[in-house]
Design a protein that fits this description.
The complex is a heterotrimer of chains A (526), B (370) and C (467). Helices cover 35% and strands 23% of the residues of chain B. Chain B has 370 residues and is of the alpha/beta class. With 467 residues, chain C is of the alpha/beta class. Chain C has three domains: 65 residues, no CATH class; 117 residues, Aspartate Aminotransferase, domain 1 (Alpha-Beta Complex), CATH 3.90.1150.10; 234 residues, Type I PLP-dependent aspartate aminotransferase-like (Major domain) (Aspartate Aminotransferase, domain 2, 3-Layer(aba) Sandwich). In chain C, 38% of the residues lie in helices and 13% in strands. The longest helix of chain C is centred in the last third of the chain and has 38 residues. Chain C is globular and about 80 Å long. The chains are: A alpha/beta (526), B alpha/beta (370), C alpha/beta (467). Chains in contact: A-B, A-C, B-C.
Chain lengths: 526, 370, 467
């Protein structure tokens, strides 16, 4: 029995808002700096006295001049033209875990006891934040089974780079660095699992998936391993949603060859209390706090890629590490074998406070529910999606998926010429955020990867499926409509060629004006 | 200046398949097929493609050959083609295909679209080589060449993108099977050459870029890796293919694109060798084989490089086989495994499993071989 | 039904047992356990998580966290003179208002159609920074200044094919350690050579630069103002020497100084980088940072950026704009290990904050704030230098931060700072061990937030403390 779900009409805000560089009027001010007190003015010289002439700025920077309500209006309008997760059924963005970021947590991170503390304050004065960071480390140690954590990396890729640096340090200390120069990863692990160890200097061996199972075969791993193997960096479940049931054997193969194993846990939403890095034997791991741990995505950050390590590798963690002496928390910089630092200060602390609050707001019971619901939602989605003509599941022999599932529109493409990029552009016409296709290279043709995490209701999932169904129907009946999408957005279709043409691309307004001088006649005031 | 699209249809390609014959080369086979009730399939395939691009027909001129070699189909889809040459209606042969292609070469058309099978591809290649962009629409029984697109819809999109200058081209293998041997159930394929086809990866993966494809750079990178790791006490047997021959080009050596050449200490010691010569050369010496992926079916042994025979492979050993390929070539396999067919079951078995494929200077992948 | 099965959570709509039952039925299983059989038993976590079992409600959660937070002393409770890479500046309320909008807060990685506002805000950030820097290409910022500088150095190494970078000894330890990590390779790393500074004025020793630079040098990296607050006025000479050896000149800046100071491109920098935290972002205990990279619009440089770069483009409608990533296939997303280094989720929300800040400030604002900062910091330095036993070396060419020397007192900086703490003051960062040749020194930071009263308070207390 399938009730037809009526799709609502939608149109994005279309403010036709000018670029701010073209707005405002000479003389307008958005903010006035508190004036210098008289005493200071009297006691000091003109600013130019303190600056050698040759380094004094000559020309005033051409920043726009707007009054305050106009700046507010402009950026509010821009925010209205941004389809944040909070506003829509954001199921399509697989691997991103677009879950609800509790508003209470947003209140907490605005407290001055977080916003207005300086990273170099005496430890005595920041025991509160150190306690929260230490306590969250305790929590995530339990969740993962790892022994020590750092919160320094500013995102998942940064976390993976940190892990690659730790692996590098380990082999250096064991005097095998010259010999061990290969890191093995898989095609369906995140591209960062290849790019970050490459930045650290490693050569990358990529295992391609078995065409039937969608998983890397252990025989493939065995043939990749040698005495040059430094380690394995792998995501599990991979970006297909398939759990590698032999992951512990993979780890064993690498260990036997003398390498270390790094677990990319960006896809951890279905694993709370269900499976851990420790039992699989991993040496290091990382989590994305802005994914399964609810910190909001913030238009691409700030984020946090917490890194966890086994006890034996804790000496390599970046400094400082937060320690507790029984009564007080301290920052330990005295770690001679540390890899040093991967950025200044301790990391994006606000995200850790949110994650801490989120875990407390869920409780252990709640965490299990998160993962169970994630799994139920995903497999329910599969059931519904497979009734849509034109949609097939990649690696159909793997019937059960965990937190996300990769589909293919290859049949739709063959039948109608409409492909996954077209459908992705059309989806937003229904007030639903576009979906994630796949990282490159595409081994699964015409891919897309939804992730219905626990935030979404059954109705949400049904609606999302109805949108896809509708668009696939459009592809068969009126393909041009889908191919020329989007139709109900803030703007019409962009010229993508300009983005790669040095004569046309422009990262700043000044560059754009320079390249199109004479052709621009716009002079709109707000 | 309007763009020029050339269309050559092999009206009998594929006719053998429906009645259980393997190919339609040779007049008597064609007779046999017709008698068995075979009907032409090329016209339908042609129509499918023409329908895809008919929306844009005002933007280019269509050149084709008379009657069933393209004119009929073009007119049926409301095109107004410029008809070249002359044929014996109902009795077309590969000579006609070659002539048509030659005419299009003279006219310097922007793309030669041909409908047929490996045999047709061979004919086009013999006339045009890689001097013009071409594209094959599959309509034959034998499709081992890498010059065909998967479907008419994809073809339509590629054609328009090429005419608009939105895709670049790359070389793809033209292969054909020894027809006599094939009909006696012996598979023996030969690599004839390379045609220039539109670069489908740019479209298929919707890479949002018009930047120069890194195929050439990738081949060079791989070559440098092989060269930098060459050992003086080994001779290197370099199999056919553009990727492998880039190695020889980088060393400034003469080479045969379609044959097997041998290098020692970065110098050429033998050109275009056969099995016997190979066995002679490797006698009492250490050797390595460098091969790449040939054809649309992903073979690393058995198609186009049979000179590297089972005996040669056995003497050299699996551990001394180096497989190289660009990532785009691997991607074009769409996840299907690589294949081997040396003719010797034991050697095939030895080669199956997983192999390391060098895809860059500091990259390699592990891929399945069946 | 067990208690656990009846557990309903406000953040999990499908935790309602009836809905779960319905969904399981549609899937064709009796329980979620049947689905979890895809994970082999040996890999299942057999116990329950040793975490607080029950969730805290909003009210309890707030009280719990506020209680822990009460153990912190803020820079509003105490008088703060700490800087060194993270500074206390004014954050206009409109900035906070915009970045708390749920649309911006919860968006992520979507393209220009559904997320047009985000893309435009990024482009506006790039554009306004472009005006400050007088450069045509600016990236949205990534993690922090240290990683931005590291990526810029690696870009220079790729551009020149060389493996050495010269860095001024005045660099701070945190950015230095970050650069050190990023420069490391397996067998071959980018070698870091340190440049001496003039002990009198703290500027780069040009003789040492000429001595150490060679055709092996990929880049010369210095900061302006430096970590010690000093304004490097030899930019032209440094870039000339750098270019003569075929190396790239990379300069790190604090953009809030660019209302007063010449942008690096005007004294020969090829690549600029720096910190955006001073542009309207709260300190957040060091979490409010972000580092950008900028250069001229030369394809040679653009194609070496590892980071996301937003480009404006046209749409089908005349006069309408859209956006996209420029040359996206140079990044790891398209090229995996063949991409330029790596990138990832960066600091999008801070990017928008900085854009709003710059829009509010305008040209007059950014010039005025520079003016106020330089005067206040010099005022404070002057008063401090008048205290017996305290010296302020390296005057007068500094901006916002300055070194305070305590050699002529009988106290270590550590002791001084502990005593200042008792008076409710965070003294300048103790840099005695970071720079051994500077003796007992601290790095003091004075910005527009410090009132005359507060500066006088510092002077009075310090005077008392070192007696």
């Amino acid at each position: 029995m399938r009730e037809a779900i009526e799709l609502k009409e939608y149109h994005a805000h279309a403010w036709n808002e000018p670029i701010i560089m073209e707005m405002g009027h000479k003389g307008e001010r958005g903010f006035i700096i508190p004036k210098l007190e008289g005493e200071i003015e009297k006691a000091t010289d003109d600013a130019t006295h303190y600056i050698p002439k040759k380094i004094l700025r000559k020309k005033m920077p051409k920043l726009p001049e707007l009054s305050q309500p106009h700046v507010l209006r402009h950026y509010l309008r821009l925010s209205q033209q941004t389809l944040g997760m909070a506003l829509n059924i954001d199921i399509g963005m697989g691997t991103c875990t677009m879950k609800y970021s509790p508003i209470i947590n947003e209140e907490l991170i605005k407290l001055p006891q977080l916003t207005d503390i300086h990273p170099y304050q005496d430890e005595i004065t920041v025991q509160g934040i150190l306690e929260i960071m230490y306590e969250f480390a305790t929590i995530i140690k339990e969740i993962s089974g790892m022994d020590e954590f750092t919160f320094q990396p500013g995102g998942g890729a940064h976390g993976i780079y940190t892990n690659a640096s730790i692996i590098r340090k380990y082999h250096e200390v064991n005097r095998e660095l010259g010999k061990r120069n290969e890191i093995i990863t898989t095609l369906f692990s995140h591209p960062a699992d290849a790019a970050c160890p490459a930045t650290a200097g490693f050569k990358i061996i990529t295992l391609y998936p078995d065409p039937e199972t969608g998983l890397p075969d252990i025989e493939a791993l065995k043939s990749a391993v040698s005495n040059r193997t430094a380690g394995l960096m792998i995501t599990n479940p991979e970006d297909t949603g398939i759990f590698n049931h032999m992951i512990d054997e993979f780890v064993a193969v690498i260990h036997e060859a003398g390498g270390l194993c790094s677990y990319d846990q960006a896809n951890s939403n279905a694993l709370f209390g269900i499976a851990r890095a420790k039992e699989a034997g991993f040496d290091v791991c990382h989590f994305n706090i802005h994914k399964a741990f609810s910190s909001p995505h913030g238009c691409m950050g700030p984020a946090c890629g917490v890194v966890g390590v086994k006890r034996e590798l804790a000496e390599f963690l970046p400094i400082p590490v937060i320690i507790f002496d029984g009564s007080k928390y301290h920052l330990d910089y005295d770690r001679p074998n540390s890899i040093g630092k991967v950025r200044q200060f301790l990391g994006n602390v606000e995200t850790i406070v949110r994650a801490y609050a989120w875990v407390l707001g869920m409780g252990a019971e709640g965490l299990m529910k998160v993962s169970e619901t994630s799994v139920i939602n995903t497999n329910y989605l599969i059931k519904k999606m497979l009734t849509i003509p034109g949609v097939i599941m990649a690696y159909p022999k793997q019937k059960i998926r965990l937190d996300q599932v990769r589909f293919s529109l290859e049949k739709l493409k063959e039948d109608t010429g409409v492909g996954t990029d077209d459908v992705s552009r059309r989806i937003v016409d229904f007030g639903v955020q576009e979906y994630f296709t796949s990282h490159h290279p595409w081994v699964v043709p015409e891919p897309f990867l939804p992730e219905p995490c626990e935030t979404y209701s059954k109705n949400d999932i049904d609606y999302w499926v109805a949108v896809i169904r509708h668009i696939c129907k459009e592809a068969y009946e009126n393909p041009v409509l889908v191919k020329t999408a989007p139709h109900n957005q803030s703007i019409s279709k962009i010229n993508e060629k300009h983005l790669n043409d040095p004569k046309k691309w422009a990262m700043t307004w000044r560059a754009y004006i320079r390249k199109t001088r004479g052709k621009m006649k716009n002079n709109r005031n707000s | 200046m309007k763009k020029k699209l050339g269309l050559i249809v092999n009206p009998i390609a594929g006719m053998g398949g429906s009645v259980g014959l393997k190919g339609t080369d040779g007049e008597d086979i064609l007779e046999k097929a017709k008698n068995l009730g075979a009907i032409p399939i090329a016209p339908n395939r042609t129509n499918e493609v023409l329908e895809e691009i008919s929306f844009f027909k005002e933007s280019f001129n269509l050149f084709t050959y008379p009657n069933e070699m393209g004119e009929d189909e073009a007119k049926a889809c409301s095109f107004d083609p410029i008809v070249l040459g002359s044929i014996d209606k109902g009795k077309t042969t590969s000579a006609n295909t070659k002539d048509a292609a030659k005419e299009m070469l003279k006219l310097k058309v922007d793309l030669v679209l041909f409908v047929g099978g490996d045999g047709t591809a061979r004919d086009i290649y013999e006339s045009v080589g890689d001097r013009l962009p071409t594209l094959g629409i599959p309509s034959g029984v034998k499709m081992h060449s890498g010059v065909f697109t998967k479907t008419a819809k994809i073809a339509g999109k590629l054609i328009m993108m090429l005419l608009r200058g939105e895709v670049t081209t790359r070389l793809a293998e033209v292969m054909d099977i020894d027809e006599e041997a094939f009909r006696q159930n012996r598979l023996s394929a030969k690599l004839y050459g390379y045609l220039k086809i539109p670069y489908e990866m740019q479209m298929v993966q919707s890479v949002k870029s018009g930047s120069v494809p890194t195929e050439k750079e990738a081949m060079e990178e791989i070559s440098w890796y092989i060269i930098d790791n060459m050992k003086d006490d080994y001779i290197y047997i370099i199999g056919p293919g553009t990727t492998t021959k880039t190695i020889m080009k980088k060393l400034g050596l003469e080479n045969t694109l379609l044959g097997v050449d041998v290098i020692h200490k970065r110098k050429l010691i033998a050109l275009d060798v056969n099995e016997a010569k190979l066995l002679e050369l490797i006698q009492g010496r250490k050797a390595k084989i460098v091969v790449t992926v040939i054809g649309g079916q992903g073979f690393i042994f058995g198609r186009g490089n049979q000179q590297i025979s089972p005996k040669v492979i056995q003497k050299i050993g699996k551990e001394n086989i180096i497989v190289i390929a660009t990532e785009n070539k691997i991607s074009s396999l769409r996840g299907k495994p690589l294949s081997v067919d040396t003719g010797d079951i034991k050697i095939d078995e030895m080669l199956r499993g997983y192999i390391r494929v060098i895809t860059g200077y500091t990259k390699a992948i592990i891929y399945k071989v069946v | 039904m067990s208690k656990s099965e009846k557990f309903i959570h406000p953040y999990i709509p499908n935790s309602v047992p009836e809905i779960r039952e319905e969904m399981l039925k549609e899937i064709g299983v009796n329980s979620v356990e049947e689905l979890l059989t895809t994970i082999p038993k040996k890999l299942r976590f057999a116990k329950s998580l040793n975490l607080p079992k029950y969730s805290l409600t909003e009210d309890k959660l707030r009280r719990h966290i506020e209680k822990i937070f009460s153990k912190n002393k803020t820079c509003k409770d105490y008088l703060n003179f700490l800087g060194a890479g993270c500074w206390q500046h004014i954050v206009p309320v409109v900035v906070d208002e915009i970045i708390s909008r749920a649309e911006f807060l919860t968006a992520y990685a979507s393209n220009t159609y559904s997320d047009l506002g985000k893309w435009q805000a990024f482009f506006e950030f790039q554009s306004m920074m472009g005006e400050l820097l007088e450069m045509d290409v600016v990236s949205p910022p990534i993690f922090d200044w240290g990683s931005a500088a590291s990526f810029a150095i690696r870009m220079a190494s790729r551009l020149t094919g060389r493996k050495e970078v010269l860095i001024s000894k005045t660099i701070g330890p945190e950015r230095f350690l970050t650069i050190k990590t990023f420069c490391k390779g397996l067998v071959s790393s980018i070698e870091i050579k340190m440049l001496d500074y003039d002990p009198d004025n703290g500027l780069i020793d040009l003789y040492d630069l000429k001595r150490k630079i060679s055709t092996k040098t990929a880049a010369v990296y210095f900061e302006n103002p430096s970590y010690l607050g000093l304004i490097e006025s030899q930019g032209e000479e440094i870039s000339k020497i750098t270019h003569n050896s075929g190396a790239e000149c990379i300069v790190g800046v604090d953009p809030i100084s660019l209302g007063l100071l010449k942008p690096p491109v005007e004294y020969g920098a090829d690549v600029a980088c720096g910190e955006i935290q001073s542009l309207g972002i709260h300190m957040n205990y060091g979490g409010g940072v972000g580092g950008f990279i900028a250069s001229n619009d030369d394809a040679k440089y653009v194609t070496e950026y590892p980071l996301h770069l937003v480009s404006i483009t046209e749409t089908k409608r005349k006069g309408e704009f859209g956006f996209g990533y420029c040359t996206f296939d140079r990044t790891l997303y398209m090229a995996r290990e063949k991409g330029k280094d790596f990138t990832g989720t960066f600091v999008g929300l801070w990017t928008i904050a900085a854009a709003v800040y710059l829009a509010l400030m305008g040209p007059k604002g950014i010039m005025e704030i520079g003016d106020v900062i330089i005067k206040k910091s010099h005022y404070a330095a002057k008063l401090l230098s008048e205290i017996k036993g305290i010296r302020v070396p390296f005057s007068p060419h500094f901006f916002k931060e300055f070194v305070v020397n305590f050699d002529e007192t009988n106290k270590s900086v550590h002791q001084v700072n502990k005593m200042l703490l008792d008076h409710g003051i965070f003294g300048g960062k103790d840099i005695s061990s970071e720079f051994s040749d500077l003796g007992k020194s601290a790095l003091y930071c004075v910005t527009e937030v410090h009132s005359n009263e507060e500066i006088l308070e510092l002077v009075n207390v310090l005077e008392g403390v070192i007696k």
